[in-house]
Amino acid sequence: MKKIGLDVGEKTIGIAVSDALGWTAQGLTTLHWDEQDFSTAREELKRIIAEHGITEAVVGFPKNMNGTVGPRGEASQAFATWMEEEFQLTSHLWDERLTTMAAERVLLDADMSRKKRKKVIDKMAAVMILQSFLDAKR
Q1: Which of 57, 101, 109, 115 has the most CB atoms lying inside 10 A of its own CB?
Q2: YqgF/RNase H-like domain: which residues (predicted)?
Q3: d(Cα 16, Cα 2) in Å, to the nearest integer?
Protein backbone atom coordinates (compact mmCIF):
# COMPACT_ATOMS: atom_id res chain seq x y z
CA MET A 1 0.00 0.00 0.00
CA LYS A 2 2.47 2.60 -1.19
CA LYS A 3 1.55 6.22 -1.61
CA ILE A 4 2.70 8.86 -4.06
CA GLY A 5 3.18 12.45 -2.93
CA LEU A 6 2.75 15.20 -5.49
CA ASP A 7 3.72 18.87 -5.38
CA VAL A 8 1.78 20.13 -8.39
CA GLY A 9 2.91 23.34 -10.04
CA GLU A 10 2.13 25.01 -13.34
CA LYS A 11 5.19 23.59 -15.12
CA THR A 12 6.52 20.84 -12.84
CA ILE A 13 5.28 18.14 -10.50
CA GLY A 14 7.54 17.09 -7.66
CA ILE A 15 7.09 13.37 -6.96
CA ALA A 16 7.84 11.33 -3.84
CA VAL A 17 6.86 7.77 -2.90
CA SER A 18 6.43 6.06 0.44
CA ASP A 19 7.96 2.81 1.58
CA ALA A 20 5.63 -0.21 1.68
CA LEU A 21 4.88 0.29 5.39
CA GLY A 22 3.98 3.95 4.96
CA TRP A 23 6.64 5.22 7.34
CA THR A 24 8.97 7.23 5.15
CA ALA A 25 8.80 9.34 2.00
CA GLN A 26 11.59 9.36 -0.56
CA GLY A 27 12.00 11.90 -3.34
CA LEU A 28 11.71 10.32 -6.75
CA THR A 29 11.75 12.87 -9.56
CA THR A 30 10.45 16.12 -10.95
CA LEU A 31 8.13 15.79 -13.92
CA HIS A 32 7.85 18.60 -16.46
CA TRP A 33 4.32 19.06 -17.79
CA ASP A 34 1.77 21.52 -19.18
CA GLU A 35 -0.89 22.36 -16.60
CA GLN A 36 -3.31 23.21 -19.40
CA ASP A 37 -3.13 19.59 -20.62
CA PHE A 38 -3.14 17.00 -17.82
CA SER A 39 -2.43 14.26 -20.37
CA THR A 40 1.16 15.56 -20.61
CA ALA A 41 1.76 13.90 -17.21
CA ARG A 42 -0.20 10.70 -17.90
CA GLU A 43 2.46 8.31 -19.21
CA GLU A 44 5.14 9.15 -16.64
CA LEU A 45 2.67 8.97 -13.75
CA LYS A 46 1.25 5.71 -15.12
CA ARG A 47 4.75 4.22 -15.23
CA ILE A 48 5.60 5.36 -11.68
CA ILE A 49 2.28 4.13 -10.27
CA ALA A 50 2.74 0.70 -11.85
CA GLU A 51 6.46 0.42 -11.03
CA HIS A 52 5.96 1.28 -7.35
CA GLY A 53 2.58 -0.38 -6.75
CA ILE A 54 0.95 2.91 -5.74
CA THR A 55 -2.54 2.68 -4.20
CA GLU A 56 -3.08 6.24 -2.94
CA ALA A 57 -2.08 9.74 -3.97
CA VAL A 58 -1.38 12.67 -1.66
CA VAL A 59 -1.67 15.94 -3.54
CA GLY A 60 -0.32 19.12 -1.99
CA PHE A 61 -3.13 21.59 -1.35
CA PRO A 62 -1.78 25.15 -1.29
CA LYS A 63 -4.28 27.09 0.80
CA ASN A 64 -3.86 30.79 1.43
CA MET A 65 -2.42 31.68 4.83
CA ASN A 66 -5.93 32.60 6.07
CA GLY A 67 -7.21 29.12 5.14
CA THR A 68 -9.10 30.12 2.00
CA VAL A 69 -8.64 28.34 -1.31
CA GLY A 70 -7.22 30.36 -4.19
CA PRO A 71 -6.47 29.53 -7.83
CA ARG A 72 -3.52 27.24 -7.01
CA GLY A 73 -5.65 25.33 -4.52
CA GLU A 74 -8.41 24.94 -7.09
CA ALA A 75 -5.84 23.65 -9.60
CA SER A 76 -4.69 21.04 -7.04
CA GLN A 77 -8.29 19.98 -6.43
CA ALA A 78 -8.80 19.49 -10.17
CA PHE A 79 -5.56 17.49 -10.41
CA ALA A 80 -6.53 15.24 -7.47
CA THR A 81 -9.88 14.53 -9.12
CA TRP A 82 -8.11 13.73 -12.39
CA MET A 83 -5.73 11.35 -10.57
CA GLU A 84 -8.69 9.46 -9.07
CA GLU A 85 -10.47 9.17 -12.40
CA GLU A 86 -7.41 8.48 -14.54
CA PHE A 87 -5.66 5.94 -12.29
CA GLN A 88 -8.43 4.72 -9.96
CA LEU A 89 -6.47 5.87 -6.92
CA THR A 90 -7.78 7.28 -3.69
CA SER A 91 -6.56 10.88 -3.58
CA HIS A 92 -6.00 13.00 -0.50
CA LEU A 93 -5.54 16.76 -0.55
CA TRP A 94 -2.94 17.73 2.05
CA ASP A 95 -2.33 21.26 3.32
CA GLU A 96 1.05 22.23 1.96
CA ARG A 97 1.32 25.79 3.21
CA LEU A 98 4.99 26.74 3.52
CA THR A 99 6.38 23.36 2.33
CA THR A 100 8.22 24.91 -0.61
CA MET A 101 9.69 27.52 1.71
CA ALA A 102 10.67 24.81 4.20
CA ALA A 103 12.25 22.75 1.42
CA GLU A 104 14.19 25.81 0.26
CA ARG A 105 15.44 26.36 3.83
CA VAL A 106 16.65 22.74 4.09
CA LEU A 107 18.51 23.06 0.79
CA LEU A 108 20.00 26.43 1.77
CA ASP A 109 21.14 24.95 5.08
CA ALA A 110 22.79 22.18 3.08
CA ASP A 111 24.65 24.93 1.18
CA MET A 112 23.24 23.80 -2.15
CA SER A 113 23.77 26.17 -5.07
CA ARG A 114 20.81 28.05 -6.54
CA LYS A 115 21.08 26.05 -9.79
CA LYS A 116 20.97 22.71 -7.96
CA ARG A 117 18.16 23.88 -5.63
CA LYS A 118 15.99 24.75 -8.61
CA LYS A 119 16.33 21.18 -9.89
CA VAL A 120 15.26 19.49 -6.64
CA ILE A 121 12.99 21.94 -4.81
CA ASP A 122 9.73 20.45 -6.11
CA LYS A 123 10.83 16.91 -5.31
CA MET A 124 11.83 18.01 -1.80
CA ALA A 125 8.45 19.72 -1.32
CA ALA A 126 6.71 16.48 -2.44
CA VAL A 127 8.71 14.58 0.21
CA MET A 128 7.61 17.05 2.89
CA ILE A 129 3.96 16.84 1.80
CA LEU A 130 3.97 13.04 1.80
CA GLN A 131 5.99 12.69 5.02
CA SER A 132 3.69 15.03 6.94
CA PHE A 133 0.69 13.04 5.66
CA LEU A 134 2.30 9.74 6.72
CA ASP A 135 3.23 11.12 10.15
CA ALA A 136 -0.30 12.42 10.76
CA LYS A 137 -1.85 9.07 9.83
CA ARG A 138 0.25 7.06 12.29
Answers
A1: 57
A2: 1-103
A3: 11
pLDDT band at 107 (very low <50, low <70, confident <90, very high): low
CATH architecture of 2-137: 2-Layer Sandwich (3.30)
Distance of CA 12 to the CA centre of its chain: 10
Structural domain boundaries of the chain? 2-137
Q: Rg for the chain (alpha carbons), in Å?
A: 14
Average pLDDT over residues 35-59: 97
Query: Tens digits of per-residue pLDDT, 13-43?
Result: 999 999 999 999 999 999 999 999 999 999 9
pLDDT, residue 100, reads: 67
Which residues, 6+ apart, have CB-to-CB distance to 118 below 8 Å? none
Q: In the 8-state DSSP scheme, what is residue 38?
A: G
Q: What pLDDT sits at residue 52?
A: 97
CA 17 – CA 112 distance, rounded (Å): 23
> Quick check: 112 pLDDT over 80?
no
The helix-helix angle for 99-109 and 114-137 (nearest 10°) equals 120
Burial of 27 (0-12, 13-18, 19+ CB in 10 A): buried
